Amino acid sequence: GLFPRPLNQEELSAPNGERILHLFKMLGKFVARSMIDSRIIDIHFNPIFFRIGDAPSTGIKPSLGAVKIVDPGLARSLKTIKKFALAKKEIDEDPNRTAAQKVADTESIVIDNVRLDDLCLDFTLPGYPNIELEDHGSHKRVTIENVDIYLEKVIDMTLGSGVRQQVDAFRSGFSQVFPYSALSAFTPDELVSLFGKVEEDWSLETLTDSIKADHGFNMDSRSVKNLLQSMSEFDVQQRRDFLQFTTGSPKLPIGGFRSLTPMFTVVCKPSEDPYTSDDYLPSVMTCVNYLKLPDYTTIQTMKKQLYKAMKEGQGAFHLS
Q: Where is the catalytic site (predicted)?
């Protein structure tokens, strides 16, 4: 899900950094506005984004477990590196070892057949060599003596100081519409669902209760029944394509089809000689959730023409 890329202070002060902060602020306003309008936006947020964003009131701090949710690959690497720190800690706390033994055993620590020095790590953020974790970090090697500090700084840059200003910009934009603190009533996972990752009910029963047939069709019309049957069998991508084609948005509002305003309506699209209904493609009026469906002779023909319109009609605007 969406999560800010870490940025250092130099990047944030540059024109592109200012632009990124502006975009996060605008995103916050957009998300807040969507909540007021009961709209599910097509953005999948990472739940950690909201845990960090609400940190002042919840006290949630960056951790290796949180890194795993944001960047599983980085988390796996850090977990391996942490084994070196834990091995050193175990040696240091062993009362049965002499000081000389502790030094010797620490220098000989091997994890997964690799010594820490073999990893050639420095104090820069993994994957971002331009982001130094401390002054002149690119010239400072990670050793068994400072590996625990390295881990803390990587986690902080990934989930704390490196993304704080982006998250604060989002909060600032959101709060221009209504207080960000209002989100404390929701868990991060609930917010993710609220903003775009939600299961939609496309069952035949729900569709039948949520869609109106008019102007040449009624709910018992063959083509309407075929349409509803086909819609109930759509896969995830087909649902997105259908909604984008018919409503202008790939997601339903909160509450599903029943919450569409105006109500989703299917009407009969007439044919003119020498053509028949099977020769026509469906057309739509997205502003009023209006589907003009030819009275196809078979469900197979309807599916073929509907799928073609869904795929090739994306973004098109014509008189129908």
A: 287
Q: What is the span of the domain harbouring residue 57? A: 9-62+162-194
Q: How many domains does the chain have?
A: 3
Is residue 276 domain-shared with residue 305, that is, in the same domain? yes
Residues in Cβ contact with 296 at an 8 Å cutoff, skipping those fewer than 6 apart: 223, 226, 277, 278, 302, 305
- Three-state DSSP at 102 gives helix
The model's pTM is 0.72
Catalytic residue list: 287
141: β partners: 122
Look at the block and give the residue holding tokens 């950094």: 17
Q: Which pLDDT tens digit goes with each residue over 268-294?
A: 999 999 999 999 999 999 889 999 999
User: Within this chain, do residues 39 and 87 fall inside the same structural domain, yes or no?
Assistant: no
Mean pLDDT on 217-230? 96
Region 157-186: mean pLDDT is 92
